[in-house]
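For the sake of clarity, the format in which proteins appear in this thesis is described at this point. Each number in the token line that follows is a code from a learned vocabulary of backbone shapes. One such record is shown here in full, so that the layout can be seen directly:
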Amino acid sequence: MKVALVSFDFGEYCIRLASALSRDAEVLLLLPESQSAPFVSRLDRAVTFRPFDKPRLRQPLAQMRAIRTILRYIREFDPDVVHFQHWHLWFDLALPLLKYPLVLTIHDPTHHVGDRGAEKTPQAIINLGYRRAAQVIVHSRAVRDQVVAQVGVPENSVHVIPHIALGDEQAKSEIKEDDHLILFFGRIWEYKGLEYLIRAEPLITEQVPNARILIAGEGDDFGRYRRMMVHPDRFIVHNDYIGEEQRAEYFRRASVVVLPYVEASQSGVIPVAYTFGKPVVATTVGGLPEMVEDGRTGYLVPPRDERQLADAIVRLVRDKELRRHMGANGKRKLDAECAPAVVARQTLAVYQRAVAGKSHPRISRIPKGLSVSRTENQITLRRFPYPYQAALAICSDIDDTQDTNEFLEIQRFLNTKQTTSMGEGVGLEIGNSFYFYDDQNHFSCFGGDERARGAIRDFISAGYVDCLHSFGDAAVRRDQVLCGLEMLAKLDRTIQVWVNHYGAPSNLSRKFEYMFGECRGDDPNSNLYHANLLLDYGVRFAWLGASTRVIGQSPARPRSYLATVFDPRHPESSALSILKEARKWALGTRGDERFILHRSNQLTRATRLEDGRQIHEFIRYCDHPNDVPQGATSRGLAHVISRRVLDRLKSVGGFTIVYTHLGKNKDCRQVIAPETQAALRHLENEYRAGKIYVTTTSKLLTYYNAFKHLRWTKRNKDGVEIEIDCLDDPVFGRTVPAIRQLEGITFYVPVRQPVRICLGESEVKGIQRNPADETGMESVTIPVTRLVYPY
């Protein structure tokens, strides 16, 4: 294979990658002379190297000459594939002139706050380059999700490949480590969060008086940072370009490397730290948690929290053996995941896919609600179970449900075709929630009504009660928590979904305390601490408070997703809603933990609780022209699942979990408002027509998690054999899934070829063979088992 590797930046990165690729491919490297000069001596002789001048962006004639030279080099080389790094204003505009399959590595999907150099290239031009790519490479799952959600690149065209190892571990080997030296390295822009390290200094030196902080890198005006320093003599500052030898010296001397970023995609600093065997303290933003294994290769702390940052740094500075152990773990991680040969092998596989496709995927060519491969012989995942184009769950909080009779009547209408007080039920698969202790004598497990307790147990075992809505607002002691968990452990089915509840002190995560009141469930110092027990029991997903008015999360067609909020029937209120959602997006982009899910518009994300354990956090949808609380009622649900909403959900090909309270029905003549009954009957029609997959919150989240993280191998063996390898779950690790976790998983397969799916040593029986859908491709589905109504 012939590969043309083009970049205007990332000199060391590109030289290492080109050299590694040259073992198995013929490589042309096009790189500015200024970028290549410090590292060109390391370039493998097998690589054809063509340096070029890099004019200033605002010299259009010089830029056009440079682009013409690059295009000429590419055409003379006549590659099978062109691999372009990142973005460049003028080269992105020239991409339509390329007639070769394009692979693009996206380092930062959007501009970082304060990065004035990057801001010179308009985002619209950057996105134009992204959409020209046949295949896209990113260095973290966080960036992959952002590229899919915000840019509109099909998910099956985006590949996560670790950042290649950087640094020379042999350089400056004579320099000894300074036990008290803390290193901040790299370009200094606002998003790097240097101010929080400066604020942490008094907290650090109070405990370690000899500690010093070395700041090395060019970038922002450093005057404002100097003014923040309480003890300037504790800082060593080199606000300039740092050459390779000087870099090696600084990393050799440092005891710990710190990345206090407030936002990030990934970082090239971490591979350098691992090269020199240094532990890393980083924040939980972007892809950093994927690069730093908390407690193993370093520590992760929340952004903008100088106290936790200081505590983590002090822990490492004081313990040389811990630093040595974590540094060794980092080196092993680097060798296993980021070694040039490993990265090159994965990159070549992406080239093969680009060449096999032969054409550039365009968003406009993707059928509604689907994302598929361009090659008929490839095995790819269908986004939703066949034949659906979107997926929806109604997640009803149990608040204000008065008694067992009301609960059962609501459930009968939702989940059976029995005759109810509202006529024939809709016969969908819609779950509900419960709590153990309630101080208003409403429907709860331990509220004194044995009939309620029995119904809750039966509906949990059947799967129709699938969310624990906290332990209730009357749960204030750990023994109450233990009593509830003891009951759950005896049932046939595990509750996998936790939902925070207004006023319940057992809630998880403090980031939404301004909404819920005190949240002590994940605080190890609280008498209500139970997060460890909850996760050990089997809870895997948690709603901590994030809600959105955007229709469709993790969409297949995500362009302008804020536009889904606009409702022409209510122009003023919906325009205001757009502004509110835009504010959440902006705060999430700046690293505000409350709104990270809004930034990417993804259904779930890995989040860290107060005790350090991780869980999958999910977001819920609700909107109403008056306000969100009015939408989250029995009557308001009619607006939340209106025809307009369902049509837009299908058009974007998204997932949604609807936030409501079916028990909030005091203004209704029946237990479910008449207009909501009509909306539910329309939802039933969409489900039975094969348009929208409707299921419980737990089943939808389980399906989505499998869709996102399933790993499989294709084998040609008397047809096609798909061997399920594992779920590569970023929170709970690699596991071999149970068959129930795979229900609904659908693979596009070659036409008219027999297909087997194997899980472990066994063949999955009863797989469903599907005719061609809107894409013209056939598929097979692991069947969905419908829940059995208990009464």
In short: DSSP finds 26 helices and 35 strands in the chain. The radius of gyration is 28 Å. The longest strand covers residues 720-729. Residues 359-376 have pLDDT under 50 and may be disordered.
